[in-house]
Specification:
The chain is mainly alpha-helical and 167 residues long. It has 2 domains: 4-45, no CATH class; 54-166, no CATH class. It is 54% helix and 10% strand. The protein contains 7 helices and 3 strands; from the N terminus they run βββααααααα. It has helices spanning 48-59, 67-81, 85-100, 106-121, 129-143, 146-158, 163-166, and strands at residues 17-23, 26-31, 37-39. It has a 3-stranded antiparallel beta sheet, with no helix packed on it. A hairpin with a 5-residue loop joins β2 and β3 (37-39). It binds zinc ion.
Length: 167
């Protein structure tokens, strides 16, 4: 079982919550940022970055040995291809880490996020850019600090068309 610190809101992934009664003997929480009431359902225990790491391992040929784990990884891959919110969040977090910890530019952070997308889904991200970019950039904006937001806004202003057109 994961630790309590892995509990997060299934809607916005915030870890900022208060206890809010019990449902069917399970602790219920209320998310402070978005107000959602949720129970700590085991299927929500995996943070987006952990799911993403598992998909990266899957693509490098590390198929889980346990059947249940393999089935879970397959389900996550399907969700990734459907651009599920946890997958968007994992891409956004990846970009944030690239800027904050690796001290890279926003350009590099976004390139790496799209490379991660391509690697995990085995797809050409250009075909999905229009449907995904605005959602991804909005999520990055949500989780970034002020400086990160400013850099993102600057980059977006300088690249108002899709990367396909800018060459
Ligand atoms: Zn929330």
């Amino acid at each position: 079982m994961d630790d309590d610190e892995d509990i997060h809101c299934p809607s916005c992934y915030a870890r900022d919550f208060v206890k809010n009664g019990k449902v069917r003997k399970m602790q219920r929480f209320r998310c402070r940022p978005c107000g959602l009431n949720f129970v700590n359902d085991p299927k929500h225990r995996w943070p987006p970055s952990s799911k993403m790491l598992n998909l990266v391992l899957l693509q490098t040929g590390n198929q889980p040995e346990e059947i249940a784990e393999a089935a879970r990884a397959d389900r996550w891959l399907l969700e990734a291809k459907e651009h599920h919110p946890w997958f968007i969040r994992a891409l956004a977090e990846h970009a944030l880490v690239t800027v904050d910890q690796d001290k890279e530019t926003m350009e590099t952070a976004l390139t790496r996020a799209w490379e991660l997308y391509a690697f995990v889904t085995n797809r050409n991200p250009e075909h999905f850019y229009d449907s995904l970019a605005s959602t991804l950039y909005l999520d990055m904006f949500k989780i970034g600090d002020t400086r990160f937001r400013e850099e993102l806004m600057e980059w977006l202003a300088a690249h108002s068309s899709s990367p396909n057109d800018s060459d």
